[in-house]
Amino acid sequence: MLRERDCAALRDTLLGGGRVTVSLADRGTRPVDGAFDNGVVAHEYGHGISNRLIGGPSATTCLLNDEQMGEGWSDFFYLASTPRSTTPEPTGREARGIGLYSLSAPDGERGFRSSFYSTDSDVNRQSYDDVITAAVPHGVGEVWAATLWDVYWKLVETYGFDEDLIHGSGGSNRAVRLVIEAMKYTPCSPGYLDGRDGLLLADRFVNGGADECLLWEVFARRGLGYSAEQGAADRSNDNREAFDRSPGCIPTVKILKRADRLYVDAGDTVLITLTVRNDKADSVSGIRIVDELPAGLTVDPASFTGPGSWILDGERITISLNDLPAGDSISLGYLARTDPAWMAERQDLPDWDFLALQGNRGWTRVDTGGLAGEGAWFVPNISGDQDQVLQLRMPVVVTGPAPVLRFFTCYDTEPAYDAGVLEVSPDGENWQSVGDRFLRHAYRGSIDGRGKPTLRGQPSFWGNSQGYREAIVDLRDFRDQAVYVRWRFVSDASRGAEGWYVDEIELLPELVRYDGQVRVNTREGDRESSSLPGPGVVVNAGAPGTVAIDPAPPESSGISLFPNPVRDLLMVQLPEAGSGSLRLQIYSAAGRPVRERVYDSRPGTGKVIVNLGGLPSGAYVLHVAEGSRVFRQTFILQP
Length: 639
Prior knowledge:
6-stranded antiparallel sheet, alpha+beta, 34 strands
């Protein structure tokens, strides 16, 4: 049997006119039975453990989905039951193969797996994104086994190695127990982050959370960090890795600034949320928050939501709080209106050419699928070799103090193989990718090494964008130059998907945007700052409605809630007509009232901010009574 990556190398050689010679090698050894391989026995026995424990004692078919880690758990049991198979004093940095005895393979070979198992990053560099192109199930399991092996040796580093693998009390024993206990807290049909969270829960119940930050250090190293995304557990190619630790493991006071929307029409109102966290071991006091207000932003003092003393002096908001206990957080919020007369001049790019560098299914203008439900540029992702280009017919001069190219994109391609790039050229012949010039929504990453050579090694858009995304590219490097612009899509002959949409393309001399830095300090000397993601809240060029606003509060004949799901501050948009007092009541899913607030009069903005701090995550129903009218709407509170 040949591995797929070996076959790809052979295929590339043949396509390039080269010659491939195949011969049968005689190792001079007889094949042996895997039943005599201690590691293989431990691996197969491990399947019995994981199949029994994952999803609960009454479930035995929970490891059939694409991202399940059954092979990874079993490889871990192989490694943990034979820790001294390569050296009498192991450290975890050794290169461990799998199934060498069964293969009659000498020491120093990988065996059945694509990489050696080792805590040495020069030996094993696998991370969560490697799952995307891995074979199901064995390849998918490799990254999980590598993660568990890192956990094993991190615990050995902390608590020591015990030669008694069965009855010992060292970090080696602690690791095996943690892995087995974690299976009991891992749901049926799990993905990697389900398994990660199972380990954290097991540590909390078995060790009182003593090793939580140690675990996060390992998870971050393998791409299973705090902000990683799993996607659907029945797919192994829609995840997104991240290398950050849990904020709770960084013992500082933190502040986070967010906006409910990151692009608006001039004159729109934005909800700004400020969240302060105390991840230190002790309470902090004398908390002072200063939020700088950019020019053109008008704050409504009546919208201030949250505890403390608030002062608005035109250029900044100052909030003073008494104290914040260890492990607690506070969310504060306010509404701010953008300047209705301040917007950039939009330069449309109307004339385009379609070039087929390979294949015959190129870019077209489609009537549906656009950002606002109207037309857009689209190229399908078929199961075939394609290299298709949407190119500006004539060059355009890049002018302005801080020029940018702004467009909206939506794509669903074969992950890590079929991809698109944005390129610029001074002459229409010599092209370069915009690379790391994105101010918002950067490339997903490089395609797999087995992908088309055209884009191999280049960062690009691929996978599923989960709807339309605003992309902004910094063009200051091309200022005062005439350049061509093109969107290029490349696919192979393997699997296909929907394709790539591009809409609302515009060249701007500079962005009209709002973003002010917020700072927090405490009496104990803590200092931290934060800003909105990327360039902040961007104002659409042209008249309101030129670019669709998405996301937006859902349309309703009654009230509208935004965002929904929500984490802390919920904005309630009231119906246009109405007067008199307002009564807001929140009910749990069981129908129990959990919060109530009464307003003597209707706010002039027609918007009310509700602070959900202190409520557990789950589904709730908001009742709004105004005079004789009563409105009800459900919302989801996220953790």
